[in-house]
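Hi C.,

You asked whether I'd gotten around to modeling the 372-residue construct. I have! Everything is below, sequence then structure, no commentary in between.
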Amino acid sequence: MAQIINGPGVNLPPPQALYPANLLSTTGVYQSATNAITLGGGGVQIIPPGKYFIDIGLYSAIQVNDPVSGVWRTLPTTGQTQFVDSDGVNYRVANLTGCPVGATVTTAGSGYTAGVPAVTVSAGGSTWRAVLGGAVSTTTTVTAAGSGYTLAPLVYIPPPPAGGLQATAVAVLSGGTVGSLTVTNQGAGYSTAPVPVILPNPLDTNLGVITNATATTALTGTGMVTGIVCLTPGTPQTGAVTLTVAAPPSGTQAVATAVMALSVTGYTVSTAGSGYSGAVEVTGIGGVVSAGAWTNPAYQNQFFTPRQAQILGAVVTGAVTTAGSLVIDGGIYQAAPSPMVVGAVITGTGALPATVVLTLGANNATVFVTPL
């Protein structure tokens, strides 16, 4: 096991700031017996040098300081092998857990004709920008249905001008042709109606004989708030924050909900169950990020299904009396995940499964550093 010691926490210089400086960890360094290291400290050192397997949540990044240039650079973090080339090289974690990373517009409002409304937040200091109009209508027109499809083709809608939100759509097949397009995200900020690009699925067995379909779109949302962009995520919070969109001069006020990147911070055994033998592992699933959420472009490529939380537990006289140690805190949960008790055998007549309740909040990044 690598030795982990405290090191200085140095802010990123602006050209290398892939993550805002205020999201860098600032307090404490802890190590568990499972090769998982919870890094709450500004900087850490991995000693001795060598190759290490580093695994970290989707919404965190581990960074190494180049001793020559003094620049902090972000390393690949999920399932990647990293080489530590010298003793005393500082590593640190940029941690977004507990911060908002996007927003969904639940009510678009109306009457926003006198400039872009301000968006304020209840806590944490995150900053936001509203986007007006220019949403792709859910009604599209298939101008040519194409032919020969055995799988639904891929649909690409070009992005809007800078500052907008890109729309998405999927094709619906009807007897080997494209019957319609379903707009899955209307986007925001388009100045002209985008033309979808419809391409055959690479796995389609009829690639050589397919005739491509074509379609057109229309815009909607004039005078409405069609999107909210997170500019900076602020400081970590223990729960959801509230967004407020300023009211229009006349009309209906828009309403938006912040999308949080939360992790599992605690758990309780609500039902001990019976009939268990062997160790218990609890895995949190679910809590998927909502489909309409958008993020700052710096994080958009990491906006995926949440990383599962994992707890290694213990069994006493056949019942789960403690959930054990939290070894993976998850990555981007929005809602409390549904736990599953696995990794144990329930025996005997009348044996009952245990249930564990997981709670969410802001948490330090959990990093696995395993020497190879």
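If it helps when you're writing up: The first strand starts at residue 3 and ends at 7.

Thanks,
B.
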